[in-house]
Amino acid sequence: MPEAKYRRVLLKLGGEALTGTGGRGIDPHVAEGVAAQIKGVMHYGVEMGVVIGAGNIWRGRDSLARGMDRATADYMGMLATVINSLALQDALEREGVITRVQTAIEMRAVAEPYIRRRAISHLEKGRVVIFGAGTGNPYFTADTAAALRAVEINANVLLKATKVDGVYDADPMVNPHAKRFPRLSYIEALNLGVGVMDSTALSLCMDNRLPIVIFKLQQPNSIERVILGEEIGTIIS
User: Fold this and answer.
1) Which uninterrupted H or E stretch holds 41?
2) Within a domain: 74
3) Phi-psi category of residue 65: left, alpha or beta, with phi > 0 → left and psi -120 to 50 → alpha
4) Cβ pair 169, 178 in contact under 8 A
5) CA 92 to the chain's CA centroid
6) d(CA 218, CA 64)
């Protein structure tokens, strides 16, 4: 059996990873596919934490444009990530993967409160830990929550699964001649204003020397391929 390049990882998923063709809500069959990918890497002895966004349920920026208070919009987004976390937990446990959801905003009836040492203990026991409700504070994105949790649990890498297969010098959806970067330094990524990750998350990873791999989730066995060290996206380090 090949050996995993990373022992402990934090996987950041967008909320859209759980949607079907409509782009909104949760498609159980799509969630099952994501769960199957995660299950596929567990036999390598990988310890995995997951942070999932809420773009399939709630987009705060749309409400901000209509005058909603920023903090209110952000809290609503944090609560929406818990819905996605529970959906992913259900899909994983139907695949036979033992899972825990921990939330930065306490809601003990449905999830554990986030406690760093308890999260690490779960990981060491082979459980997937899904971190919901962002950082628990407004004005921070799910990307920043993912970077923060990755640093806190001493992850070896932050994996960000997206719709595109890495970082480009232009939008590849618009420009078919856009160039993909196989590798970037943190400073280069910050100077480029990388659209797939915000500057706060990038700076946090840079300050703690946490490498980031940005890759396309929809490629076959993409999570497994990244964990085994195949360079299918962009590495920021």
Assistant:
1) helix 28-42
2) yes
3) alpha
4) yes
5) 15
6) 30
Q: Which residue has the tokens 């719709």?
A: 163
The sheet carrying 8-13 orders its strands as: 112-113, 99-103, 128-132, 47-52, 8-13, 157-162, 212-216, 234-236, 183-184
Per-residue pLDDT tens digits for 28-52 = 999 999 999 999 999 999 999 999 9
Instruction: Give dist(CA 96, CA 85) in Å, integer.
Output: 16
Q: Would you state the structure tokens that stand for residue 201, as one six-digit string?
A: 């998350």
Query: How many CA atoms lie within 13 Å of 191's alpha carbon, on the beta-carbon side?
Result: 5
Residue 233 corresponds to which amino acid?
A: G
Domain membership flag for residue 3: no
Q: Is 128 helix (H, G, I), strand (E, B) or coil?
A: strand
For residue 57, the enclosing domain spans: 8-236
pLDDT tens by residue, 179-218: 889 999 999 989 887 677 889 999 999 999 999 999 999 8
Q: What is the CATH number of the domain that holds 62?
A: 3.40.1160.10
Beta bridge partners of residue 181, listed in sequence order: 167
Please give the structure tokens belonging to residue 197: 């990750």
pTM of the shown model: 0.94
Helices vs strands, H then E, count in the chain? 8, 11
State both tokens at 138: 């407004």
